[in-house]
Description:
alpha+beta; homotetramer
Amino acid sequence: MTGQDRADGSVVSGHFMNPLEDTQSQQDTRQVPIQRVGIRGLRYPVTLLCPGGAAVPTVVSATLLASLDASERGTHMSRFATLMHEYRDHIDPRHLLEMAAKLRASLKAETAQIILTFPWFVEKVAPITGQPGMVDYEVTWDVTVSDAVPRFLTSVVVPIATVCPCSKAISERGAHNQRGELTLTLASAAPPWLDDVIRIAEASASCELYSVLKRPDEKFVTERAYDSPSFVEDVVRQAALGLRALPGIQAFRAQAENFESIHSHNAFAMVEEGW
Amino acid sequence: MTGQDRADGSVVSGHFMNPLEDTQSQQDTRQVPIQRVGIRGLRYPVTLLCPGGAAVPTVVSATLLASLDASERGTHMSRFATLMHEYRDHIDPRHLLEMAAKLRASLKAETAQIILTFPWFVEKVAPITGQPGMVDYEVTWDVTVSDAVPRFLTSVVVPIATVCPCSKAISERGAHNQRGELTLTLASAAPPWLDDVIRIAEASASCELYSVLKRPDEKFVTERAYDSPSFVEDVVRQAALGLRALPGIQAFRAQAENFESIHSHNAFAMVEEGW
Amino acid sequence: MTGQDRADGSVVSGHFMNPLEDTQSQQDTRQVPIQRVGIRGLRYPVTLLCPGGAAVPTVVSATLLASLDASERGTHMSRFATLMHEYRDHIDPRHLLEMAAKLRASLKAETAQIILTFPWFVEKVAPITGQPGMVDYEVTWDVTVSDAVPRFLTSVVVPIATVCPCSKAISERGAHNQRGELTLTLASAAPPWLDDVIRIAEASASCELYSVLKRPDEKFVTERAYDSPSFVEDVVRQAALGLRALPGIQAFRAQAENFESIHSHNAFAMVEEGW
Amino acid sequence: MTGQDRADGSVVSGHFMNPLEDTQSQQDTRQVPIQRVGIRGLRYPVTLLCPGGAAVPTVVSATLLASLDASERGTHMSRFATLMHEYRDHIDPRHLLEMAAKLRASLKAETAQIILTFPWFVEKVAPITGQPGMVDYEVTWDVTVSDAVPRFLTSVVVPIATVCPCSKAISERGAHNQRGELTLTLASAAPPWLDDVIRIAEASASCELYSVLKRPDEKFVTERAYDSPSFVEDVVRQAALGLRALPGIQAFRAQAENFESIHSHNAFAMVEEGW
Lengths: 275, 275, 275, 275
């Protein structure tokens, strides 16, 4: 399904004599405004422009949406993918706002929204041996523009380790622990840099994760995690304290999910403020 | 991670001499209330009690959650799974409300929420030959109880076929079409029966889907779909008209996603009212 | 896409005057035999017939396939789903062989294969308090019939806990541990019962998992796991010893994947014999 | 779980007085050789070195494995991630072979295997208007080294469109069609370039897919697909003919899966030769 961006499609091609019928521009009489219409699951190679000036390549999964008046039958689907193509080499929060504003203007829509999800990598060194390795986080930027103030949401999924305080307290030796994921979502006028959000998340767990750990490092992270046991409830509370202290935050949500090593189901906790 | 439901754990087992430390019941001084804590991804075999009296087995993926006061460190995790075990043989909207109320009372929580997602099957006969086959839908029941009126959400994912009206109008022969998914979510005091929601969804598409189609049936569905072309926007608008007419509906959302046969990304549209 | 199972489609319906063209039965001149063709991702409600006589409902994801001679253009797709419909109330290894044989005969195919994947639940009691709860496993039955002896594969995914022996040995306190999955796949003339395979898998880990654990149980599983540290290599070796001892086994594969709590990637090991 | 790569871990850190116990290097007496052990799901940012000299960034999901003798208890897990880190800036078939050889030598293993899966993008222009857009494919490179000749497998998942020949032949108007995925896997001494494999795949379908299509383009692809109806069987046969003609191919497999627009299950076909 795709739209026709000019009044006269026949100019574009010699394959047909008459203008192609513009089905999308038909009047719609059902009186149902559409809050969002567009494309999802568009995987695209992009370059992220980082605060310090670095240009970092990654791959996004993109959702581009706009509202549609009750009177119009269809939107112009090809413009969404074209917009992604135009901006693929300079993606950052400021350009995302620009993209959404451009989409909104071009479609004469009340609202436009762009959501990009992508892996973000941080090079970490092992805590004792200093061996380097990249750790991956999943980031989502979600921007909405309308007549109101733009809304910018940043969301980061951070893998963490948690040692169960109950298991530690009641057991004569050992304590069950596991990998978990802490997802921090926050609304802010000027989005904080990703590494600042990741730092808050990793400080909320029993221990942070690494890609490369040699034996002395493994001893260190094992003992450190054991010394900082955290329920899934503790993790989201610590994250909440960290997020409250971030400058410019309007609202946040912290969600922790532990892949419990004693169950085949997960433990989950969520704190949200300011929404 | 699991809680201790009695005052004195030592009664339960001779493996230890003193009561086990009750870490979860410790005071928490961080002043961060937790909106939701509990378990996710608990897969369980259940029996659904249907309006006509039928008892239908299926498998749920369950999420059971409760709020936690700022002053308490941890919830009692074992109660969530135990509750699912107790109710596994009689699942329906009324019992879900009862489960949530029981969870809330047992944990002295402000709020309790239970979310079950499960496949639901309808036996359909092929439109011409009458050959029978089961079609699967994915259902979510999501109930929240607190001091306020309970909130009951029903969500059904319905696979559909859509023929693109633009492609049909501009092409000399054929028209691109594809499978899509229409997800209807609705809030209501007394939840409508699943088959009524499915009927609305299937009537909103170019054609409904079947598991078994012989050649005369395939001719029928091909022509029927071609005769009812629908943009993703048309699908959600038709669904909205259908949902508005359902008795007892408080709010709804219709989301259509087409696995476009001309793109590797999807087309998406959403209408919501009453939230 | 669906096949026509009778010579004359016009008998079936009055919607058309002439027999429907039988495209699938056209001659194919490309000289490319097709090893497998059929349907995948057919979700179906079924009843499993268990050795002791119990009839257990579950939901399968079904793949039904057959070979196709180089000279035939297409298979008869509707027969695959119809076969699933016929057998849905009596699924067990013997009936699966019968289904595959029937499919093969009906399509005059050299080979037919049926693969069913489904959740299987075992009620377990917590090790100290005796609290009951269902634990879920994912099972795959994969049967192939041809002129040769039928091949029957059973595969079970078992969630497990593993405590790292290295972390335990080098750390002054604690030891990292995590959830993992041990997948056992085996070829046998008479497939062993699922619970026997699960028992081998759970005995190969640091500890098995439960759905409901109260505090005394949690103490027990924590200490037990800590006392039985297992590398991912240890897990597959123990499983191999157990599988070798199963009567009637022709070949097996044991694959363990640990969701490492110190990394965001997984540890993996595989042993196979007899293929 | 991680290995110790030096004889004396105590040099690295002052956190402990004595060398850390080397659990992995313990003798194993179970007599079970391990065919593969290592890491899976390591997501890493890499640079692909392309035949023409271009350096293309992407993100891989990496699996790195080695065999382990029956006499050794554990492998050295940290070396797998370290190897990925070392080679992240120059990934191509030649370097993958080098990586695997290095891993094998460093671990004194009989066999080493490296599997990378990554999105690969091709800029395509719309067939009539020439509008540009990136289309994504999923590629897997899988290299195994041992005493024998190295085995190099290339696998590409290509999204395609298929129009059903039966539906077209029997219907008075229209024809059901859908998105599908054609996966081509091939073994070769010198792996063919990705774009050559993609070309074979796209030529085997009713029509290839695009990211950006304006109305004249949509008319073109609709009619083109309608004029080239293809069963899932036709798709894999066409692919087989194309793959047979690729120079240096030792074996191949073509698998097509159609997300049928008239069913909620998929149609599937597979041809393989030379294995």
